[in-house]
Write a structure and sequence with these properties.
Layout lengths: L6 E4 L7 H11 L3 E6 L2 H15 L3 E5 L5 H15 L4 E4 L14 H29 L2 E6 L13 H21 L4 E8 L13 H9 L9 H12 L10 E4 L7
Parallel strand pairs: 1-2, 1-4, 2-3, 4-5, 5-6, 6-7
């Protein structure tokens, strides 16, 4: 029960991957979790499931992180219901692989708005409450794509994820005096059942082949890193990036 009494707001938490796994892990450790996602019904459904499973209070809310009004409303709802926000887990990010010459303005804007601007909107919405509390943990999911060159049409996604890491380092300096930490987790390839809708099969196999550790990374591997950063054990770590890669990327 490492997060007993804490209130966690998570974005993109109703999918098959890291967001939902982290919501479950935080609930298991005693946190009240607020699951937000652009899909309202799924957010409410998963929140109800978690509430029943862990016997805790949860909320499921629609929140498209590209919509600053929805983001502000989600933060207000959490404060109305729980009175505080201890943990922000910025999970929303999107990729639409394409070579630079083929990236349309719309795709560029979508990837940047979801991955980078959405992270900014969410941080901005929760920081005043965290400052009043003199406590906060901000954890954003980035990617090793933000460090390394990658073939396969990831330039816009990589730029957005690198942007989140740079943003987080500056944010960490600003909020540290209020005992708020801000860190990122950079996974390499983490499989979930939705991945084949985004990446071609040969790309999926190539990404698995890069991993020296003899198993595939799972959403729970990332959730475990998030638990550490959110817990008391992670208190003195800020402005950092934890790489969860099975050794496929080493800094
Ligand atoms: N899966 C990987 O291999 C991998 C690797 C590195 C980084 N990441 C990053 O991890 C995060 C989670 O990815 P995942 O693959 O585990 O999927 P996930 O299941 O955690 O997230 C998918 C969810 O995101 C939601 N979503 C998409 N756009 C949104 C928006 N604008 N606002 C709110 N919700 C939105 C979808 O509705 C879906 O429910 C992303 O930021 C991704 O870039 C994933």
């Amino acid at each position: 029960m490492r997060l007993r009494g804490k209130v966690a707001l998570l974005t993109a938490a109703a999918g098959a991957g890291i967001g939902q796994a982290t919501a479950r892990a935080m609930a298991r450790e005693g946190a009240s979790v607020v699951l937000t996602d652009m899909h309202e019904e799924r957010a409410k459904m998963v929140a109800d499931e978690i509430s029943r499973e862990y016997n805790i209070k949860t909320i499921g809310l629609k929140c498209d992180v590209t919509d600053r009004v929805e983001v502000a409303r989600a933060a207000e709802t959490v404060l109305d219901v729980f009175g505080r926000i201890d943990i922000l887990f910025n999970n929303a990010g999107t990729n639409r692989p394409a070579r630079v010459v083929d990236i349309t303005n719309e795709v560029w804007d979508l990837v940047l708005a979801t991955t980078l601007t959405g992270t900014f909107y969410c941080c901005r919405a929760v920081i005043p409450a965290m400052m009043r509390q003199n406590f906060g943990r901000i954890i954003s999911v980035t990617s090793v794509a933000g460090f390394r060159g990658l073939a396969g049409g990831h330039a816009h996604y990589a730029a957005a994820k690198a942007g989140v890491m740079a943003f987080t380092r500056c944010l960490a300096m600003e909020v540290a005096p209020h005992r708020i930490t801000a860190n990122t987790i950079a996974p390499s390839f983490i499989f979930n059942e939705f991945i084949p809708h985004i990446y071609p099969q040969d790309e999926i196999e190539r990404m698995f082949e890069e991993i020296p550790y003899p198993r595939k990374g799972t959403p729970d591997d990332v959730a475990n890193a998030a638990l550490f950063l959110a817990s008391d054990e992670g208190e003195y770590m800020t402005g950092q990036t934890l790489c969860v890669t099975g050794g496929s990327w080493m800094r």
